[in-house]
Amino acid sequence: MWIADQWRDYEVLDTSNGEKLERWGDYILVRPDPQVIWDTPHKHPMWKQKNAHYHRSKKGGGEWEFFDLPKTWEIEYKELKFRLQPFSFKHTGLFPEQAVNWDWFSSIIKKAVSEGREVKVLNLFAYTGGATIAALNAGAKVTHVDASKGMVNWAKENAALSGLVDAPVRWLVDDCVKFVEREIRRGNTYDAIIMDPPSYGRGPKGEIWKIEDSIYPFIKLTTKILKKDPLFFLVNSYTTGLQPGVLSYMINTEIVSRFGGNVTSEEIGLPIKDSNLVLPCGCSGRWTK
Fold it and tell me: Using CA atoms, how far apart are residues 269 and 201, in angstroms rounded to an integer?
C-alpha cells in the first residue's frame, strides 16, 4: 500500500462504526467512511470535541452539523496550500491521501525539468486542483479540466494561495471525454496524464459518466494524446469494484502495449494516529517509462 504519511496539517485520529475522526489543521471533523466497518470504543478524547460532524442519512445523502467551524480555512502540505470548506456529501475540497501520488509524480517532473525537458501535464476530472498545484510547483505546464465551474474556480484559489498565480496553467470547464476528443483532432499531445474520475458524474451539458462503463474506453482514448516518449500516467479510483489489479490490466493493455515501461497499482491509504493501522482510501495505477 502507498501511504500518505508526510502530512503535518492533516491526520486521521481514530475510526469507528462507519466514521473517521480527522484533524484538518486546527479543526476536528467527523465524517462517514464506508471502509470503517468495525465498531471499536471511542477512546480518543476528540470525539467529544469535534468542530463539525457529517451525519449520513439512511435515505441517502446527509447533512453537516456544525459546532465551531469557520466557513473556510486553510491547510498546508509542504509548499502547497489549500482552502477547505465543508460542502455537499461530506467533502471538504481535498483528498489528503492523494499526497502520496503528488510526491511520486513531482519527483518525475522535477527530474525531467532539471534535464531541460518541458513537461506538459493534462489533469482530467481535476476537482479543486491538488494534483494540478503539485505539478505546477514541480515545474510542469498544466492543463486543468473539470466539468464544474465552481471546482475550477476553487482550484484557481488554491493555486494563488500556493504562490502559483502566474504559473503556466490552462483552467478549463469542460466535459473530459469531449475535451480529449477535441485535442485528438487538434493534434495536441502531453508528456503526462493524470485522471481522477468519479464513480458517477455528469458533464456541463448533462453528459453521463459511469466509471465501470466509461473508464476503459477513456484510458484507450487518452493514449492518443500522449507524446511519443511520455513520462507518466496516473489513474485514481475510489470505486470498490476497480481493484489495483483491474487498473494494472487496463494500463498494461493500452499503454505498455504502445510505449513499453512499467505499471504498478496499489491501494492508497492514510495512517491512523497512535496505531500501526492504515485506513484504505481507494487505489491508484501508475505507469512510467
Answer: 24
> 171 by DSSP, 3-state: which?
strand
Which amino acid is it at 260? G
Region 101-126 average pLDDT: 98
CA separation for the pair 269, 265 (Å, rounded): 13
pTM of the model: 0.94
Contact 55, 65 (CB under 8 A): yes
Q: What is the pLDDT of residue 96?
A: 98
Whole-angstrom distance between the N-terminal and C-terminal Cα of the chain? Answer: 21
Please check the confidence at residue 28 and state whether its pLDDT lies above 80.
Answer: yes
pLDDT score for 239 = 67
- What secondary structure letter does DSSP report for 28? E
| Integer Cα distance of 72 and 230 in angstroms | 38
How far apart, in Å, are the Cα atoms of 136 and each of 69, 155, 158, 207, 220? 31, 12, 12, 29, 26
| Residue 211 confidence class, pLDDT cut points 50, 70, 90 | confident
Distance CA 232, CA 226 (A): 10
Q: Per the structure block, which three cell numbers stand in for 67?
A: 459546532
Dihedral angle of Cα 286, 160, 175, 110, to the nearest 10 degrees: -30
* Percent of the chain at pLDDT exceeding 70: 97
Enumerate domains of the chain plus CATH numbers.
Answer: 2-84 (2.60.40.1180), 98-288 (3.40.50.150)
